[in-house]
Design brief:
The structure is a homodimer. The first copy, chain A, is α/β, with parallel strands linked by helices and about 230 residues long. In chain A, about 30% of the residues lie in helices and about 20% in strands. In chain A, helix 3 packs across helix 4. Chain A is elongated. The N and C termini of chain A lie far apart (about 60 Å). The interface between A and B is large, with 55 and 55 residues. Strand 6 of chain A pairs antiparallel with strand 6 of chain B, so a sheet runs across the interface.
Chain lengths: ~230, ~230
């Protein structure tokens, strides 16, 4: 049976102009769009993509329920349901463009779906987007990493003390839910921190030092941390 | 005095379709192009960009001599010379698009030029490109990093033994010059390795295990390393 291809498309972190030519072409060519959200209106990746490629609004959109939870049973049920929905369309030989915020290979929920659809013998393809940590460095007009420095990307909703001791540049992602603790740890360690909240989106805010970081920062906040005797 | 803007443009790792809409627009709008190489023919970033935006071939191109050396005096002299060339054009109120392979914020030679031009009070702007490590994961159709995993980007021309012990996914960049040693270290540690050489360029090659890695791999080789009892 001939099946369609599942394209996992990274749409970048916010600015629609950061979409790649390839992402734009494939969204135009795919007859069906899919999003990891129940409604288009709530899906940041969709809102970015539709600004760059307005015609996707005219295409059928598969809305997949992918809640943010660490409950394995709930996740398993949702992934299974989402794969079923995707495969129904793919098995009708229709290509699907599944939209992801940032890059499709970096901490994307869609990665789990990609692996399962692949395992079921259906062709899949990843299309890169600009990852948020690169966009944040560009927004700050600063190098992310240079020379012999190492770069460490740390999902900060877990333990960060040990990660901060790593040599080189540290990027803390998903720190919002415990920003008070993160800020305290950074202050005590004398790190130099820059932060961007909602990079490239409405309501974007830049913070140039650890002291400036608000404890009520939103979900789309990313910190770039360097060692230093004190914060700049 | 009104001056032009220096745009640092990441052109991605090889596939011209991975250029962003923003990079394409700015290359079209800038009257002058600059490359970190003596000749267009030798400049991979230029060769990628000109495929996506053929009209840059008609624009004047500043060819900056930026040799790959660790000799600080040579580097200092070259950076100074390159900045002088860029600023001559910028001070005539002409915008310049300086092309960089991959992302402009990640290990780019152009970062040094950007900092100096900024210090001289001239406006600069970074335009992201897809970093090579994201493109390699997409090419392999595999997650780069997911869930609670950390991601470590390691310039492998230096010591790598300690870096390999880090928890999570390790990306080794610039390993080519000592690939024999790197391969030996990976084999002894029982790591699972995937490698792509010349991702998205002519002569691209994929290697699915540590054992397959050729010791004569070229400069544009990137390894994704995971812990494991043995190589896949």
């Amino acid at each position: 049976m001939k099946t369609g291809v599942l394209y996992n498309i990274g749409v970048g972190p916010g600015d629609p102009e950061l979409l790649t030519l390839k992402a734009v072409r494939i969204m135009r060519e795919c007859p069906v769009i899919a999003i990891p959200q129940r409604k288009k209106e709530d899906c940041v990746a969709y809102q970015i993509a539709v600004q760059a490629v307005p015609e996707i609004a005219e295409k059928p959109c598969l809305c997949l329920h992918m809640p943010m939870t660490k409950d394995k049973n709930v996740l398993e049920a949702c992934h299974k349901g989402a794969v079923k929905i995707l495969e129904e369309t793919l098995c009708q030989d229709q290509d699907v463009a599944l939209l992801t915020l940032g890059d499709s290979t970096v901490y994307a929920t869609a990665l789990y779906l990609n692996e399962r659809v692949k395992q079921d013998g259906i062709e899949t393809c990843m299309v890169n987007g600009i990852p948020s940590f690169c966009a944040v460095a560009a927004r700050l007009n600063l190098p992310l990493v240079s020379g012999a420095e190492q770069l460490h990307i740390i999902p900060a909703s877990y333990q960060i003390e040990d990660a901060l001791k790593l040599s080189g540049v540290k990027v803390l992602m998903k720190a919002a839910s415990k920003m008070g603790d993160v800020k305290q740890t950074l202050l005590e360690g004398g790190y130099r921190t820059k932060m961007v909240e909602r990079c490239g989106m409405d309501g974007e805010r830049l913070f140039e030092s650890t002291e400036e970081i608000p404890e009520d920062a939103g979900y789309y906040s990313l910190l770039i941390v360097r060692d230093g005797e004190k914060s700049e």
